[in-house]
Amino acid sequence: AQSVTQLGSHVSVSEGALVLLRCNYSSSVPPYLFWYVQYPNQGLQLLLKYTTGATLVKGINGFEAEFKKSETSFHLTKPSAHMSDAAEYFCAVSDRYGGGSNYKLTFGKGTLLTVNP
Amino acid sequence: ETGVTQTPRHLVMGMTNKKSLKCEQHLGHNAMYWYKQSAKKPLELMFVYNFKEQTENNSVPSRFSPECPNSSHLFLHLHTLQPEDSALYLCASSQRQGPTGNTIYFGEGSWLTVV
After folding, report:
1. How many CB pairs under 8 A join A and B?
2. CB contacts, 8 Å: B99 with chain A
3. Residue B78, Cα to own-chain centre: how many angstroms?
4. pLDDT tens across B2-41, in order?
5. Nearest to B21 by CA among B38, B6, B2
6. String of b and e for A25-41 (b: at least 16 CB within 10 Å)?
7. Is the link from the previous residue into B8 a cis peptide, with omega within 30 of 0?
8. CB pair distance less than 8 Å for A49 and B103
């Protein structure tokens, strides 16, 4: 089964600074990778996803992530943090199960991003 | 508004009560999910329904009973819960269960407190 490790349960940056949220995965097959964001008192919203093709993926709100197979990483970045980016961010990998064509998302533990004025 | 609506948003129940969580998706999807989100733990997949058929039961205790009458509706029936079951329960849907294009859309969740 695939797994996801998010390094750092809490990241704090200043407004305007670079945001870097780390995600490493383990997978025996080419992975499908996702980043979701959860704002307070809300469900999860898709930021971006990697399936195939270009390894640099652009998402909403100025975020992007780069798939690096050699490093088994899918780190999330944003050049300049905004106060509205404060939220919890989850990395996930699509995981096949049951021997058929069923897939499910396996999530990391999440990283809470705080943005200081 | 994600197209996935959960009710109620907040629920407080005693350990002997029976209650249900409801989820409705307006996206025309064929797969629906229940996830449990507890503090300091990864999201846990509980159940998956694909075209109304349950395809995953992730070793969930029988005090949680899912029901999927059609592709648009999903219920989670709760009975004789324990305080450790207090959590945010997230419903989600996707067009299908394939690995690509499998963007999962989440509802806003139902906060459950068991007293």
Report:
1. 67
2. 32, 51, 94, 96, 103
3. 11
4. 799 999 999 999 998 999 999 999 999 988 999 999 987 7
5. B6
6. bebeeebbbbbbbbeee
7. yes
8. yes
Q: Is B108 on the interface with A (CB under 8 A)?
A: yes
Residues of chain B numbered 37-56 and touching chain A (CB < 8 Å): 40-43, 45, 48, 50, 55-56
Bridge pairing between strands B10-13 and B110-114: parallel
How would you write chain B as a 3-class SS string?
CCCEEEECCEEEECCCCEEEEEEEECCCCCEEEEEEECCCCCCEEEEEEECCEEEEECCCCCCEEEEEEECCEEEEEEECCCHHHCEEEEEEEECCCCCCCCCCEECCCEEEEEC
Q: Tell me whether residues A32 and B99 touch, CB distance under 8 A.
A: yes
Q: Do A42 and B41 touch (CB under 8 A)?
A: no
How many whole angstroms separate alpha carbon B85 and alpha carbon B61? 10
pLDDT digits over A66-111, tens only? 999 999 999 999 999 999 999 999 999 887 766 666 677 889 999 9
Of A41, A44, A103, the CB nearest to B99: A103
With a CB cutoff of 8 Å and minimum separation 6, the contacts of A12 are A113, A114, A115, A116
